[in-house]
């Protein structure tokens, strides 16, 4: 499953990078932003607090809601994700909760 | 009580020792040129093209296992580098990939055969085409040359009332600094990428800044002491600015040592470039820029007075 997003750097695909992890508090998605021609790929994590989405919502629906937000916040998200992987050797984790609802 | 590192009346003979240091610098520069020709810089993917792929493994593995796993893909030369997570994270560099676009999914599928589904995750792919890489290399070289020439012209115009040769001195000092830094990068085999190039341009800016401080004091002293030989004026100016030179360079160098020690592998090439560049930039302001002016003026033995004086 992939959602297409248009950015200043060209068309990207938002894909799942690993199976999602769910518990009572949140849904944790591992996502991948990959340029359509495949020359760039960056993975990051997205934690959505349980109160923001129905716990049974599938990852495809969450990605569809994330896509327009990611189009707006693309540069910052891409740069942060790349820097976190390069410097800290871990994936960036973006958390959406009651204080920071993002697209939810 | 104030801390005084350099006495105000210090009078070291910098100009008198210039011949030794010019010979030393020339030898170092020649060695750097030979290193650049015969060994070459360790160019990053920005300049040679290819792809950098960062892979995270669920279980610790090693470079040989990764190479064996990817051998069926026939992707050419692969550099596998442990990325500091106890065998869980590796950086793969591919220089000549035929299908540069599909690299991420292709690698993930191939690695899954050896490490299991989800055992290896491609978390970053950054690719630069060979042509873009060579364009960047050419433009990077031009940026360094243009920065050096324009700074030389600017300084020549600024100090024309004392001598037009200040511009030449600054340019030769900058070329010296660039050669020393690139030579050090060749020896250390640290990666030369766009960040390192930015650091090299910063070194040029810093070095010329230090040269201007000394040259400006020469200009002031030349206006005050019209009958004094320029060699003597130059030595006095270097001594007068020595405290400032050591304090500003020293504090910057301390920060860079900290950055080099604790900044991690990503910042290491640029921190190293800046550290070597700041040290050599300080040295060249004293021992390279000045002697060039003296040589140009034809008063290498310290006799005579400058051909023109500051207004």
Strand-helix topology:
The complex is a heterodimer of chains A (104) and B (311).
Chain A: E1 2-7, E2 10-22, E3 26-35, E4 40-49, H1 59-72, H2 74-88, E5 92-96
Chain B: H1 18-38, E1 42-43, H2 45-48, E2 50-57, H3 63-70, E3 78-82, E4 89-94, H4 103-115, E5 120-128, H5 130-158, H6 165-188, E6 191-192, H7 194-224, H8 230-240, H9 242-262, H10 264-287, H11 289-297
Parallel strand pairs in B: 1-6
Antiparallel strand pairs in B: 2-4, 2-5, 3-4
Helix pairs in contact in B: 1-6, 5-6, 5-7, 6-7, 6-10, 6-11, 7-8, 7-10, 9-10
Describe the structure.
The complex is a heterodimer of chains A (104) and B (311). Chain A is of the alpha+beta class. Chain A has one domain (2-96). Chain A is built from 2 helices and 5 strands. Chain A has helices at 59-72, 74-88, and strands spanning 2-7, 10-22, 26-35, 40-49, 92-96. Chain A has a 5-stranded mixed β-sheet with strand order 1-2-3-4-5, with helices on one face. In chain A, strand 3 and strand 4 (40-49) form a beta hairpin. Chain A starts with a strand and ends in an 8-residue tail after the last strand. The mean pLDDT of chain A is 90. Chain B is an alpha+beta fold. Chain B has 2 domains: 15-44 and 132-297, Multidrug efflux transporter AcrB transmembrane fold, CATH 1.20.1640.10; 50-128, Alpha-Beta Plaits. In chain B, 63% of the residues lie in helices and 10% in strands. Chain B has helices spanning 18-38, 45-48, 63-70, 103-115, 130-158, 165-188, 194-224, 230-240, 242-262, 264-287, 289-297, and strands at residues 42-43, 50-57, 78-82, 89-94, 120-128, 191-192. In chain B, the strands form 2 sheets. In chain B, strands 3-4-2-5 form a 4-stranded antiparallel β-sheet. In chain B, a hairpin with a 6-residue loop joins strand 3 and strand 4 (89-94). In chain B, helix 7 (194-224) crosses helix 8. Chain B starts with 17 loop residues before the first helix and ends in a 14-residue tail after the last helix. Residues 300-311 of chain B have low confidence and may be disordered. Classes of the chains: A alpha+beta (104), B alpha+beta (311). Chain A binds chain B through residues 17-19, 30, 32, 34, 37-43, 82, 85-87, 89, 91, and chain B through 51, 54, 83-85, 89, 100-105, 118, 121-127, 264, 266.
């Amino acid at each position: 499953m992939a959602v297409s997003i248009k950015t200043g750097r060209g068309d990207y695909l938002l894909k799942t990078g690993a199976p999602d992890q769910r518990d009572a508090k949140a849904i944790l998605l591992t996502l991948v932003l990959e340029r359509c021609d495949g020359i760039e790929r960056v993975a990051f994590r997205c934690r959505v607090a349980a109160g923001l989405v129905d716990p049974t919502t599938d990852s495809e629906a969450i990605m569809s809601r994330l896509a327009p937000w990611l189009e707006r916040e693309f540069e910052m998200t891409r740069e942060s994700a790349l820097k976190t992987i390069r410097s800290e050797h871990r994936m960036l984790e973006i958390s959406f909760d009651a204080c920071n609802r993002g697209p939810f | 009580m104030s801390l005084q590192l350099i006495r105000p009346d210090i009078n070291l003979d910098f100009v008198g020792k210039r011949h030794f240091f010019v010979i030393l610098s020339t030898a170092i520069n020649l060695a750097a040129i030979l290193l650049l020709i015969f060994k070459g810089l360790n160019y990053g993917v920005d300049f040679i093209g290819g792809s950098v792929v960062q892979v995270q493994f669920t279980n610790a593995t090693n470079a040989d296992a990764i190479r064996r796993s990817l051998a069926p893909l026939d992707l050419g030369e692969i550099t596998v580098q442990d990325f500091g997570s106890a065998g869980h994270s590796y950086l793969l560099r591919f220089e000549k990939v035929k299908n540069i676009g599909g690299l991420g999914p292709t690698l993930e599928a191939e690695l899954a055969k050896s490490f299991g589904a989800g055992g290896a995750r491609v978390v970053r792919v950054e690719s630069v085409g060979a042509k873009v890489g060579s364009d960047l290399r050419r433009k990077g070289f031009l940026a360094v040359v243009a920065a050096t020439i324009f700074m030389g012209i600017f300084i020549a115009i600024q100090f024309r009332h004392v001598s037009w040769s200040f511009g030449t001195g600054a340019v030769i000092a900058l070329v010296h600094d660039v050669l020393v830094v690139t030579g050090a990068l060749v020896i250390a085999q640290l990666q030369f990428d766009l960040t390192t190039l930015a650091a090299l341009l910063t070194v040029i800016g810093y070095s010329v800044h230090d040269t201007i401080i000394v040259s400006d004091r020469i200009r002031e002293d030349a206006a005050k002491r019209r009958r004094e030989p320029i060699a003597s004026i130059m030595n006095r100016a270097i001594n007068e600015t020595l405290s400032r030179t050591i304090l500003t360079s020293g504090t910057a160098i301390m920060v860079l040592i900290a950055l080099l020690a604790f900044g991690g592998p990503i910042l290491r090439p640029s921190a190293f470039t800046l550290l070597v560049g700041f040290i050599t930039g300080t040295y060249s302001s004293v021992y390279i820029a000045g002697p060039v002016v003296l040589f140009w003026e034809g008063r290498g033995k310290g006799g005579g007075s400058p051909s023109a004086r500051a207004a």
